[in-house]
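Escalation from tier 1.

The customer reports that the assembly of two entities below gives different structure tokens on two consecutive runs. Tier 1 could not reproduce it. I'm attaching the input and our single run for tier 2 to review.
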Amino acid sequence: MAKILLVDDSKTSRKILRTILEENGHEIIGEAVNGEEGVEKFKELKPDLTTMDITMPIMDGLEALKHIIEYDKKAKVVMVTAAGQKSKMVDAIKFGASEFISKPFETPQIIDIIKKML
Amino acid sequence: MFGLYLGNYLVEKGRISQAQFNDLMLQQKKTRVKLGLIAVKQKLLTLQQAEEINDIQKKTDKRFGDIAIEKKYLLVDQVTHLLDMQGNPYLQFVQVMTENNILSMEEIKVVVEEYRVDNHLTSSDISALKSGDIDRIIPVFVNLDVPITGECISLMLRNVVRFISSSIELKKAYIVREYSFGSLASQQMFGDHKLFVGLASKGNELLTVANAYATENYTEMNEDSFDSVCEFINCINGLYASSLSQVNIHIDMAPPYFCTDKTITAKGDICVVPVLINGEQVDLLVSVNSHVSIN
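Tier 1 run:
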């Protein structure tokens, strides 16, 4: 079981992810609605794993990922992307993203990825 | 799906009541079984294979049968056989109408012809509607020859059927430069092309999309219900961006945007596709390579 922080501006997306993760025994210890809040909550909650949406207002997921990796090089951050964001996925790898989850969400893929990372 | 068009036409003409129509649709729905379930029952697929295809379907905008053939789980003939077993939804609707003594086969033929004439459709359009195949139905109502716009509309409508409701009825698409709405969820995309994609309604009709996608029971268009519609648009636009990238066209998605009681103004065309989803009218709006402002 992992303590997970969800960063996504979409409440629907957070709800779907929370349901999938909780049903598979993980604990959601916090949620953030943009990258800036995500970085703050990461520092405050020190999660085992963070899911990070890419397209968000105020501070996007790539910028937030950079801040988190600067703060903690070992941070495990899974980027959440809509299909078709290949160039951003490449950037995310450069900035230290551990893995990717793509939308629309697929439960087995998410669970496999989380298991692999823990 | 044609049962829906015909049923609504009969309600409009006062030949059947709305309650009768709703009951007919319910009866028809009960008779239709998913292709994957039939394949598993026929032992042509394992449950795991069917689930795998369902998962792929969510990502790739392909039909169940086509994926099964690609994966070499089924042969073309087997898919045809399964589709035959599943039955044509229009024929199921006709069956339910006649069994309930609402109209005879002969009377249905007459009504179909009246519907065709009233809606300025050709016989081949009627065949497309009767087929129940969304890919054949869309061109009856939307001009798909316009590059980008046509593909984008087609993809969005196929996914409305997949994720929101299989009970959709399309109306003839039209072009405007200005469009006023009560509720709008939208997203702009930039890069090799500039796209504006929105779902709009006069009042709270967008709830039908919001509730289906988030599996919620929202009763008004608020931040949460708009979020659900925006997330649906975001996912489908992602699939579209992904398919464009395969032909070396790159577009990037801006965060989705929602608002109420405003007017969209475009320097170019906005294609409006009216879609009745579970009886509620939602308009799909697509504008390509045009400056769009909302005020």
